[in-house]
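**Backbone geometry record:**
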Amino acid sequence: MYKWLGLSLGFIVALGGGSAAIAAGGAAMPLEHADNDVSNTASLQRGARNFMNYCSGCHSAKYVRFNTIAADLGLSEDQLIDNLMFNAERPHDTIERTMRDEDAIRWFGTSPPDLSLIPRSRGIDYVYNFLQAFYVDPDSPTGVDNVLLAGTSMPHVLWELQGYQRAIFTPKESASGTEYEFDSFEPVTAGTMSAVEFDGFVRDTVNFLDYISEPVQLKRRVLGVWVLMFLTVFLIIAMMLKKQIWKDVPS
């Protein structure tokens, strides 16, 4: 069943940038690698569970169907229906969000984006770090802000798991004035998960997001290897044939 953490609105605003360091209101945070593995079926299964429990109430994933997920993740139709299809009627349906646009706009000022292609457009490392970069901000309407996306409309939907943290910024003088550079996070309240457990939770979740952004990526990689092998063999044969044809032709 859904984990409605308050009025959790997933990635409401468009996630920005995927470079090695992202600036947000003068603060910069280096990105850590997600190190996810889309060939890890168990991780994808956990990530699918996480996505449906914490994300699908507010976000859609319109470019992937439930039956495709079941086939790729080794799930039976019964497992699919019982564990993932909370807001769908048929296995060939796509993932649709429950929240209505008018409600999202009224509560948060914008409509949550579809997450099908977010990892491809922003980078999986960015998504991985974004989910862990929320910090307490009393001036924010949601009570939190994000180091990677200052002024984000997204509440900290995983606060119960991670707990709350404070961001430490160091003032730096520059030609344009005083800027604040992100230094570290400091725990404020503990969550139900340890730091290691929460990191695993986030990694599984972004692994699933990486998968749905291109469900055929593993098959594509295997096919790519076979194509390169074919081209290599073809090149060898072509060179041998050329040598055979031109051997009696005077240079």
Remarks:
- The beta strands are 21-24, 27-30, 61-65, 94-95, 134-136, 144-146, 163-174, 177-190.
- The radius of gyration is 23 Å.
- DSSP finds nine helices and eight strands in the chain.
- The chain has two domains: 21-215, 217-251.
